[in-house]
Amino acid sequence: MSGVLIHLPPGEGTGPATGREAGAMAPGPVTLRLGAGGVARFGRGSASTPVELRLADPAVSRLAGEIRVTDDHWQLSNLSSGQTYLVENPEGAGEYFRVPPRRAGAPIPFEFARVVLPTRGSAVSFQVFAPDHVYMDPDGMDGWGTRTLTAFSLDETATYFLVLVALCEPRLRDESAVAVATTPQIVDRLRSHPECGRLTARAVSSHIDYLAEEKLRISAPATADPRQGARRNGKREAVVGLALRFGLVREEHLALLPPRAPAPHRVEVAGR
Amino acid sequence: MSGGPVEVVPPGYRVGDWEVTEPIGAGGWGTVYAARYVGPPRAAGDGDGPPKPGPEPAPEPGREPGRSAEPGGAGPVPDVADLAEVALKFLPTAGLAPRQARGLVETARRETELGRRARHPRLIRLLDSLTLSEPANPVLDGAVVLVMERARHSLRERLHIPSAQGPAAPAPSGERTSDPPAEAEGARLLTEICEGLAHLHALGWVHGDLKPDNVLIMADGSVRLSDFGLAVELNGTHGYIPPLGTPDYLPPERWRAPLGERGVQVRPSTDIWALGIMIHQVFTGGVSPFPGATPMARGAAAQEYAEGRAPLRMDLRVPPFWRDLAADCLTPAQEERAVHTAAGLLARIRAAREREQQRPAVTARAPVPAHAPGAAWWQGRAALLGVTVTTVVCGAAAAAAVALLGGEDRSPRSGAGATAGMGTAAGGERTARIEVFNAEEPCRQAGNRDKLCSLGLAIDPVKPYTLDNVVTTRVWHGDTLVADCQVPQGVPIADEAGERSTQWFRVRLPAGEGRGTAWLPAVRAKDRPALPECAGRPSPA
Predict the structure, then answer these.
(1) Residue to substitute from B8, B270, B296, interface A, most A β-carbons within 10 A
(2) What kind and span of H or E run contains B433?
(3) B372 is a domain residue
(4) Does one domain contain both B441 and B427?
(5) B388 partner at 20 to 30 Å CA-CA among A34, A269, B82, B434?
(6) Compositional bias (Low complexity) spans (chain B) (predicted)?
(7) In a domain? residue B284
(8) What DSSP character marks residue A213?
(9) DSSP string covering B178-231, please?
(10) In total, how many domains does chain B have?
């Protein structure tokens, strides 16, 4: 249980500084990490109603809501008197639900969620990640009470898992013992997948970061190399190495990837 | 590979000199079967004596002795008693991708390595290990089989914790004892677990997956630690194991542990945390000290506790000595927990036992009825096994009871100047005066007869202390009651300050109550007069 991660994209938290959060004054992204049982309030904030996550839009209540970490998920309380909030699953096929005014502790089942608050103009939104969701081991689905489980479980239907499989593909197919796909290669590889047609290079990088930092919590060997590219490659290699070593990605997962367009392994892929 | 373990080994299947009789269960890695010895008969003395130490090589995982493996030819020589019935753990490698097969071979290697090197009466004995060569049966081909001592059941089964497999898991027929372990049995089980753990740690190994499933109880009741699939030899202060674990027994640091090239870090303190959970479970019928309906909820509760946002609330059924021990095992910070080593805990357990054994000689007692419970935890307290529910009467219940009572005149308050001294009642029995003590400070003001400050008296001290087990008479701080005897082992009661006791005093009630006596929990008084134990099972007078 490492809790949840709240991410406020740049621009959403800007505006006059009335909250106590000094960090909110900067028009950059805000990231809050809540541990087990942790609570964060969000809203416009004021001197008398401090909030941990400041949303500067005037249409947002001073104290608009509360996020509370519960077990492996989180709860959303809508503290406004008249606004309905929307919680979307950015990875779902348009999955969302409404949290009506004064609703206390609505449980949020999504590993990735975007909380959308209505405003006069465009909506204000922030993201909440719950990386602790547990998935049972494939051979242990008859129960999990006292079973020994893989401590790092991955959602095999999530986009990050597709990215991971694509990263591991060259090694799984024994094409290369060392090769790790680059970001453009992954974008290219997943383009024909029905859910990844619009996957950007930036999104792929965020998925890899999420895997490395939140899901696997990789203790990367400290690389002193200041060059960004080298550092990123180190992270990718670590992700691939660990995923393969501990069986988080296996040969059978290659079937999740779309058929390969270029010729060389056409026959092999078609046979799956 | 879904839908649970596949039963691939039919009864009658032969492995080396053993023949499979029935499946026992499925663990995290393999399926375990019971088997009996069908090899050539041996003389009684054959293989007896101390187990051969040292360099007998356990078979390398790659070795293929097939089904014709010589009995004891490669592994340690089993003694005759072991041969009658054994447990065979099958670690099938078929149907797995090569990388997973490597992982299983690694698991088997850890088990054999530890089994070979860490002989101890508290560790399950590995008698042999072989790799099957069954080209005609791809499911079994290449499977690693570990031949081990046969246990009666696991601690999980003893505590009646529902198995992960649910009803599908075959219960060992007729072997289950219906009662949870009594204090004496629980103490013995935990002492033996601690002995095994101390030995393991002294050798520089960490178990890595200590839990009631992996604590086996033999036919003679003794304990063996088993399942060393995650056991690892330490390199300095820590070792690395694959990222596997059982959520309920993971120490708080593991929930945030990074995954490194070699896996996750484990230390002896990993096992100590799991021991703390098990101490609590042994005395509570399997209940974790952390609240929650699911392992994830309990894991979150453990995290909250470790982060200092929630106190550790242990069940009052856990005896005070063991509660202190469990609290030390559950020290949140890994560095501070490391102070409590298995050897240190074992020394404390033994010292406590010695103290307890000396105590009866010091305390002069009135003759104790034969069936009355002994005071010391290892002596057994058979008379009180049924006592499991502990209820501290809450303020609301007390207030309700007082409202019914509607007055203070009936309280058995004695005249001023009464002291808690010994006296002799008209009948010639010994009596003592006991002054009621209220742990809540505002209730101790002179003359405070607030209903919320009233305290209850029980009808029966071995029944749960609930609203239907209290007399109508209420008492307040400073009241003096006349007690004529006591029971040392009633329902445990804790006061608002956390003081806990299982002792109860039988006190006289004023006329008009409808009964002559009632029971005051010892935590409601500071006096501890040396009263005789009440004769007979205390019953509602």
Answers:
(1) B296
(2) strand B430-435
(3) no
(4) yes
(5) B434
(6) 162-174
(7) yes
(8) I
(9) SSPPPHHHHHHHHHHHHHHHHHHHHTTEE-S--SGGGEEE-TTS-EEE---TT-
(10) 3
Same domain, B324 and B303: yes
Instruction: Quote the minimal CA–CA distance from A251 to chain B in Å.
Output: 7
Mean pLDDT of B47-63: 40
B108 with B191, same domain? no
Domain shared by B75 and B113, yes or no: yes
Interchain CB contact of A71 with B (< 8 Å): yes
Q: Does A69 touch chain B (CB under 8 A)?
A: yes
Mind telling me how many Å the CA of A172 is from chain B's nearest CA?
10
Write the pLDDT tens digit of every residue in B233-255.
888 888 888 778 888 999 999 88
The answer to whether the CB atoms of B259 and A35 lie below 8 A apart is no
Rounded to two decimals, the ipTM of the complex is: 0.80
Could you tell me if B228 and B296 lie in one domain?
Answer: yes
Interface touch B165/A143, C-beta < 8 Å: yes
Q: Using an 8 Å Cβ cutoff, are B240 and B266 in contact? A: yes
Are residues A37 and B211, on separate chains, in Cβ contact within 8 Å?
A: no
Domain that holds residue B196: 153-169+178-362
* Domain-embedded: residue B266: yes
Mean pLDDT of B104-131: 78
Position B384 confidence tier, pLDDT thresholds 50, 70, 90: very low
What predicted TM-score, i.e. pTM, was given to this entire model? 0.69
Instruction: Tell me: pLDDT of A20 over 50.
Output: no
Bridge partners of residue A125, in order along the sequence? A116
**What does the block give as tokens for A107?**
């449980």
B135 and B182 belong to one structural domain: no
Instruction: Write out pLDDT tens, residues A216-248.
Output: 888 755 444 445 444 456 888 889 988 888 888
Average pLDDT for residues A129-146, to the nearest whole number? 73
Domain contains B475: yes
- Residue-level pLDDT at A139: 63
Q: Cβ separation of B296 and A72 shorter than 8 Å?
A: yes
Chain B contact for A1 (CB, 8 A cutoff): yes
B2, B256, B264 member nearest A139 (Cβ): B2
Radius of gyration of chain B (CA): 28
Q: Quick one: how far is CA B268 from the chain centroid?
A: 19
**Domains of chain A (ranges plus CATH)?**
4-129 (2.60.200.20), 159-270 (no CATH)
Q: At what angle do helices A183-190 and A201-210 cross, to 10 degrees?
A: 110
Q: Which residue of B has its CA nearest to A251?
A: B97
Report the C-alpha gap between B18 and B39 in whole angstroms.
7
Per DSSP, A130 falls in state -
Residues 151-170 of A with CB under 8 A from B: 151-152
The per-residue pLDDT for range B290-340, each reduced to its tens digit, is 999 888 889 999 999 998 888 999 999 999 999 999 999 999 999 999 999
